[in-house]
Amino acid sequence: MRDLWQTRPKLRILYIGTGPYATLLMPLLVMGGTSALERVDLVEVNPSSARMLQTCLDLLELDQRRIHLYAADFMSWETPHRYDLIICEVMAAALVREPQMAVVKKARGLLSPGGVLIPERISLFWGLSNQNREPRWPSGMSRVPPARYQWTHLGDLSAAETPPTTVELEVKRAHCEGQELTLFTEVQVYGEEVLQDAESMIVNTVCVFSDFRAYPCRLRLHYVEGPRPGWTAEPIRSGEGNCLRGK
User: Fold this and answer.
1) How many domains is the chain built from?
2) pTM for this prediction
3) Is residue 241's pLDDT more than 90?
4) N or C: which end of the chain has fewer CB within 10 A?
């Protein structure tokens, strides 16, 4: 917000998926007030969370002439406004479970020129790894560092980019034993603030395939969009497709 205020006297903010306390924004509203804000729109799909957030706004006596709370599904919610800052809560690693990709696609169309989307970038990688040795939040780093093979950038989700939803992979058979096809997530929140291994639930690893003994080592990785998105992996028969080879 401080960076945006250097070029804009008043900000318009959209916060998608606030939960009951809007934790990424509420402390700033309480400490800094709302005088330098033109408009703040809060969108929360869960009715009970929206009610709790309204209670918080009332108790804190925040200026609700500028702050507007909507108990609505963002994907069907409409607004004529454009925003200088849009905050999207990232709920799970590797863009699974919550419709994060669909939300970001819609949200970036609501940015004003030069506006900022938080998080700035979600980067996805694939590789082979043993899940039992991978660092996880909240337990932290494993005592035995994981061996990661064929670490390869899959794509980015940001205000300007969308990762591919279907990718064909060639897995080296020498690396398959005891390993699983794993998705890794790195989240650039803003600027130099980056979440990596075991620093948050949203960067935990996700296993998408493990039975290499029964299938060829050429796989088609596909992202299924919808209310409960996730990844699938299926074998590619000999002679099909063009594969992305890992390192």
Assistant:
1) 2
2) 0.88
3) no
4) C
